Amino acid sequence: MSTEPVRGPASYFPSIEKKYGRSIGEWQRMVRDRLPAKHMELVAMLKDEHGMGHGHANAIVAHVLSTRTP
């Protein structure tokens, strides 16, 4: 078991789930469903359609795009 703290975009996930009431998996699906949209288009979608703050939206989009296989 790792004792390393979670870093990067995933460090926001607990607060995103608590604040917006959906699991990270749900948010990630929403982003993946909009691919191949651009990063900032996806951030804007989360902000405009779901009222998410910029940092939280950016964290979800960055994580989805970083784990995407070509």
Low-confidence stretches: none
Shape: globular
**Integer count of domains:** 1
Determine the structural class based on helices, strands and strand pairing.
mainly alpha
The share of residues in extended strands comes to: under 5%
Largest sheet: none
Number of helices: 4
What can you tell me about this protein's structure?
This protein is mostly helical. It has one domain (8-67). It has 4 helices and no strands. It has helices spanning 13-20, 24-33, 39-50, 54-67. Helix 2 packs across helix 4. The chain starts with 12 loop residues before the first helix and ends with a helix. The model has no long low-confidence stretch (mean pLDDT 92). Pfam families: DUF4287. This is DUF4287 domain-containing protein. It comes from Methylobacterium terricola. InterPro entries: DUF4287 (IPR025629).
Features of the shown structure:
70 residues, mainly alpha, globular, DUF4287 domain-containing protein, DUF4287
Structure described in brief:
By secondary structure, the chain is mainly alpha-helical. It has one domain.
Helix-strand layout with pairing:
Layout: H1 13-20, H2 24-33, H3 39-50, H4 54-67
